[in-house]
Amino acid sequence: MLILQFPLWWFSMPAIMKGWVDRVYANGFAYGVGEHSDARWGDRYGEGTLAGKRAMLIVTVGGWESHYAARGINGPIEDILFPIQHGILHFPGFAVLPPQVIYRSDRMDDERFTELRNQLAQRLDGLAHTPPIPFRRQNGGDYEIPALTLRADLAPGQSGFGVHRE
Predict the structure, then answer these.
(1) What is the sign of the dihedral through the CA atoms of 111, 112, 117 and 122?
(2) Which residue in 94, 118, 122, 134 could disulfide with 166, CB within 3.0 to 4.6 Å?
(3) Which domains does the chain have, with CATH numbers?
(4) Coiled-coil stretches, from where to where (predicted)?
C-alpha cells in the first residue's frame, strides 16, 4: 500500500514529491514494460509492475470543500487529482482508492482535529476493503488500439476525465 500525503500546492503535489516520482518511476519499472505493438501498448493503466498493489492520496487543502465541488471556483477535486491518481498511480498498475481530502486544513480547532483524526483512523483501518476507483484498463477492450481512444459506444457524447471510469 502506497499512501502519498501532501498539501495541495498550485493544483498539484509539491515539487519535492514530484521529484521523488520522477526519480523512482524509472523506465522498466513504472513505464516501458510489456509488449509494445499494434495490438498492445505495454503493461500500463492498471496492468503495470505495480498491479495488485493499492495506493491512496491524503490531501490537505486550504480552501473550503465548496471551492472544489462540481461548480466550485477551483473545479471538482476529482478532476484536480485525476493526473495524479490516473496518470501517476493507475498508470503503473496501482488500484487507486478514493482520496481522503481534508479541507480548510489551516483553520482547525482541537474539536475538528479530533474528528478528522478519528475519520482518518477509520479510513486507514478499512483500506484492505475499500473499493478502488473504477478506472478503465488500457488493454481491457475499452480503448481502440493503437489510437488509445475510448470506444465510441462507451460514454457516447461525453468527454473529459470521467469517461475513463467504468
Answers:
(1) positive
(2) 134
(3) 2-134 (3.40.50.360)
(4) none
Which residues does residue 150 pair with via DSSP β-bridges, in sequence order?
143
For residue 163, give the nearest of 149, 96, 88, 120 by alpha carbon: 149
Report the half-sphere exposure of 76 (CA within 13 A, side-chain side).
Answer: 9
> How far is Cα of residue 145 from the mean position of the Cα atoms in its chain?
23
Helix H or strand E segment including 111 = helix 110-125
Coil, helix or strand at residue 56: strand
| Calpha distance 3→81 (Å, rounded) | 14
Residues sharing a CB contact under 8 Å with residue 15, sequence separation 6 or more, in sequence order: 9
Tally: H helices and E strands in the chain: 3, 6
Q: Give the number of residues written for the chain.
A: 166
Q: What angle do CA 126, 132, 136 make, to 5 degrees?
A: 175
